[in-house]
Design brief:
By secondary structure, the chain is an all-alpha fold. It contains four helices and no strands. The structure holds fe (ii) ion (2 copies).
């Protein structure tokens, strides 16, 4: 599989899933917050989810506008798009975000599991667990396949330009 095929499939499978699920889960959390039994716990869950969602949305944007097109262009021997940030630094911060996001989602599942049971609470536990599992698979592909290949392409592109 080429770098472009690999990253196109990650966007089609995992990024699309996130773009559908993140707003859906925000809406479910808002509905659950209307149930007054939950008090503080639900606002903590909401603010944790908001942090994760903001980070993930910025992360997807950087991958789709810069990281993935740069790797694909280098693979074809074309000029990559102008990056608005240092690619190596951003790659390292992305790996940290992968770790942090995975642990935040696992914590969120725990927090939601401890809320009083209701249909909506169960739906949310199921949605966030599915999100967390999909994120693990997504991050595994990027950490083990996309990032190492990107570094190789960047090295090769650097050499051919000099
Ligand atoms: Fe991604
Ligand atoms: Fe990523």
């Amino acid at each position: 599989m080429t770098f472009k095929e690999l990253t196109d499939s990650i966007v089609a499978v995992h990024h699309s899933f996130l773009r559908r699920e993140l707003p859906a889960i925000s809406a479910q959390l808002e509905d659950l917050a209307k149930d007054l039994r939950h008090g503080n716990e639900i606002s903590e869950a909401q603010s944790l989810f908001k942090k994760v969602r903001d980070k993930v949305e910025a992360h997807l944007k950087d991958e789709e506008t810069t990281l993935f097109p740069t790797g694909s262009a280098l693979e074809l021997g074309q000029t990559p798009p102008q990056a608005e940030f240092d690619l190596l630094e951003r790659l390292a911060s992305m790996e940290k975000e992968h770790d942090n996001c995975g642990s935040s989602l696992k914590l969120l599942v725990q927090m939601l599991s401890q809320l009083p049971a209701s249909n909506l609470q169960k739906t949310l536990v199921t949605s966030v667990s599915a999100l967390s599992q999909d994120m693990d698979e997504h991050v595994r592909k990027e950490n083990t396949e996309v990032h190492p290949r990107f570094l190789e392409l960047l090295g090769a592109g650097g050499k051919s330009r000099s």
